[in-house]
Amino acid sequence: MSARTALIYSHKFDNFSYGESHPFKAQRFRLAYELIKAYSLDTLENSIISEADNIPEEHILSFHDSKYIDRIKEFSSSPVPRADFLYGLGDAENPVFPGFYDWACLGTAGTLEATRLVSEEGYSAAFNLAGGYHHAHRSKASGFSYLNDAVIAINSLLSKGKRVVYLDIDAHHGDGVQEAYYDTDQVLVISLHESGIYFFPGTGFENELGTGKGFGYTVNLPLIANTDDPIYMKAFDEVVYPLIAAYDPDIIFTQLGADTFRTDPLSRLEITTHSYSYILRKLKALRIPWVGVGGGGYDLMNTARAWTIAWSIMNGVKLPLKLPEPFKKSIAAMGYPNTMLFDAMHWADEEDRNLALDAVEKSIAIIRKEVFPLIVGSNHY
């Protein structure tokens, strides 16, 4: 029997909005799903499209503080806008809108269901488009994130004695996930992201390595502006891949944000679908049970293309280079000129990429010195 896969998607995503001027657009989930359908990736044999909208509160409280959750519930049901900056609620970044707790639960339930299908039902891969809220802290909303779905789902795996690699390829450092597992060796947390020297959330440096039993099990590769496809693949091949192989987890949990792409309005990296798909193919080749969640991506077509590619790779389906004609016509009417699913490999301008290459080589050297003796040289290998 072929490996089973699951895509988590709900039309209920369309019922919520962060606001017209907010960069986070829930429409990206519908656009990604429409592209998946255009390639007939919604009707694959041994694959299901699933929906989840209920999550027991005890799962939420496995990470989040109860007072914070009470305040979210209160504000979510309020007929007038509210704000509590102690909890990060009600500012321009994390708006309070009608039903925002239901919105957060919807995405989190999807991630928990994807994790359950992989860990309990034997699915080889499950992908929740509307997951990846990696900035939510124990008692504070941050970075468009109210509930940290990744931590909640990973906690469910830890309760079953599973060992997990959390890999985050979003442009922003996964600070909320790092916070949760900074002192444990049961989760290897790896984040490739734009450097916090000048970029939100201002964390994720090479010297953030964990503490106590967790020392060496937090790995950060901060990338400076103009990091391009070859540099990104180099970072993955020289650090990420060998660490995952050596740690040998029961499950890989990946945050697959597409805001690293060179035309994303919020980041200054120069990644394309070339290196993005390269990384995902390498992960697929490991044959380790795989949970994927969405994450960032503020150019909607980039996000749709990236997540369609991710879903195709999870299913071992090779897609054509060009977008389907009916889909091209539908997006042209919305003002999108895109015609290609895949991009050619991109090199940044020579001066910029030399700076980015120097920076990543320094980061790689630090990690190989500090982390590799603990993990690659340990009995995990």
Q: What is the structure about, briefly put?
A:
The chain has twelve helices and eight strands.
Task: Set down the secondary structure blueprint.
Elements lengths: L4 E4 L18 H12 L8 E4 L6 H4 L5 H11 L23 H21 L4 E4 L20 H10 L5 E5 L6 H7 L5 E8 L23 E6 L5 H19 L3 E5 L17 H13 L4 E4 L6 H15 L10 H8 L17 H21 L1 H4 L6
Parallel strand pairs: 1-2, 1-3, 3-8, 4-5, 4-7, 5-6, 7-8
Helix pairs in contact: 1-9, 4-5, 7-8, 7-11, 8-9
Characterization of the model:
- It is a single chain.
- Helix 8 (273-285) runs parallel beside helix 9.
- The chain contains twelve helices and eight strands.
- Helix 6 links the parallel strand 4 and strand 5 (187-194).
- It has 381 residues and is of the alpha/beta class.
- The chain has helices at residues 27-38, 57-60, 66-76, 100-120, 149-158, 175-181, 229-247, 273-285, 300-314, 325-332, 350-370, 372-375; strands at 5-8, 47-50, 125-128, 164-168, 187-194, 218-223, 251-255, 290-293.
- Strands 2-1-3-8-7-4-5-6 form an eight-stranded parallel sheet, sandwiched between helices.
- The mean pLDDT is 96.
- It has a single domain (5-375), classed as Arginase, Chain A (3-Layer(aba) Sandwich).
- It is globular and about 55 Å long.
Count of alpha and pi helical runs: 12
> What sequence of helices (H) and strands (E) makes up the elements?
EHEHHHEHEHEEHEHEHHHH
The average pLDDT value, as a whole number, equals 96
Question: Which runs of at least 5 residues are low in confidence (pLDDT < 50)?
Answer: none
For the biggest sheet, the summary is:
8 strands, parallel
Radius of gyration: 19 Å
What shape does the CA trace take? Answer: globular
Helix content: 25-40%
Domain count: the total is 1
The CATH C-level name is Alpha Beta
Amount of beta strand: 5-15%
- By CATH, the topology is Arginase, Chain A
